[in-house]
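Re: that backbone. Tokens:
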């Protein structure tokens, strides 16, 4: 009888140890969310790439452990970029700021109005800025997404 009681006691202690070992390993694997980040995307005349970029961003955003607040600024596009972004706004979670095209004389010597307006709409202390206006228009959206969104955030 004592052998059975000792065996059950050892079995209970072993199960107790395995339970706490699994809990400790689970704590190591789980990610705690990082600080909230605002992602500011500034673009102009990117009608061919706007839908691709926003859909890839939405898919990529679900796989990240950081809380994102996405703000997209259309800096006076002369093509249909603003219309495409307005259509996507119902399905994807982002804020859209549309600016009117500015005269070249107004822009010289002035701070970047698109960037400043976008920063006003960002609600978090950390802001990650992706300025697509500085890239050549011939650059494909796939390359832009790979460089800025996949490799830049590690």
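Recovered sequence:
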């Amino acid at each position: 009888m004592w052998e059975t009681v000792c065996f059950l006691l050892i079995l209970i202690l072993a199960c107790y140890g395995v339970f706490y070992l699994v809990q400790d390993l689970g704590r190591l694997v789980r990610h705690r969310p990082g600080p909230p980040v605002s992602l500011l995307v500034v673009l102009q005349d990117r009608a061919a790439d706007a839908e691709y970029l926003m859909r890839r961003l939405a898919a990529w955003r679900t796989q990240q452990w950081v809380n994102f607040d996405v703000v997209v600024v259309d800096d006076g596009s002369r093509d249909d970029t603003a219309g495409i972004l307005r259509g996507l706004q119902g399905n994807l979670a982002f804020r859209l700021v549309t600016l009117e095209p500015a005269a070249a004389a107004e822009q010289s010597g002035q701070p970047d109005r698109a960037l400043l307006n976008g920063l006003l709409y960002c609600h978090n202390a950390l802001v990650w800025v992706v300025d697509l206006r500085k890239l050549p228009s011939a650059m494909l959206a796939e390359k832009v997404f790979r460089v800025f969104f996949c490799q830049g955030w590690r």
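The two ends are 60 Å apart (CA to CA). The chain has six helices and four strands.
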